[in-house]
Every structure is written in structure tokens, then in C-alpha cells.
Amino acid sequence: MQDVLTFLSNHATLSGSIAILVVLLLIVEFMRAKRNNFSVSPTQLTQLINHQNAAVIDIRSNELYRKAHIIGAHSLQSKELIDNSKKLEKFKNKPLVIICGTGMESQKITTQLLKRGYNAYALAGGMRAWSDAAMPVVKE
Predict the structure, then answer these.
(1) Does residue 137 fall inside a structural domain?
(2) N or C: more exposed end of the chain, with fewer CB within 10 A?
(3) How far apart are CA 58 and CA 78, in angstroms?
């Protein structure tokens, strides 16, 4: 124990740097864990749809939506979701899953919807993860 105290006192800058790195790592892990609380995988999304009648909202452009979207998904732009809550009122009592291309934008929208009282989730990895999992899509 004496050796550790001697080391810490002789290398205060190094010890302080290590302490700061540990604190930053803990903060990053906490934020990642918090963010993943409302993310679902493609398999979990399928279970939400099948067992809880979840509503799927695709916030990608209309062109991307027409190229390929999840069966039963509704196409709404992110601005519509934020500005016009009347379009979401019919989904208030069921799980709501937000889909974007990569999962980044849907996480932001989901956070806002959670604050407004919705039971909202984001598809982790977005449509890219859905396609990579070889899940079915509708093409128009």
C-alpha cells in the first residue's frame, strides 16, 4: 500500500489523468446504457409488432420508404412527428417504433416522444439493421 501512495504522490499528473479517464469512461458507459433503454433490435421489433400490436413509423424520405419499408409501417416525416402530435394521437396507447436509415435520427425523435409520454422505441441500426437481418420488406 505504501508503494501505491508513493507512486501516486510522485506521479500526480499521471494519476490525475488516469482518474479523469476512468470518470469519462463511466460517463460514456452510462450514456450508452441510457440510450439503449429505448432501442430495439429487428427481432425485438418483430415481437413488439406481433405481441403488442406496435405501430411502426418510418421517418425516412418518401422515396426511400417506397423503395423498401417494413410491412405495415406508416410514413411520416420527423418534422411532422414533432410539430403535429395529432397524427400520433391514434398511437398513444400502443408501443411506437421509430425507423430511420441508420438509427441515429430515430433515437433523437424517440427521446422527444418519450418526454411527451409516448411508449416509444427506436430500431437500433435503422433500416440498415433490418435489411442486414434479412427481415421482410415491402417495395412499391
Answers:
(1) no
(2) N
(3) 9
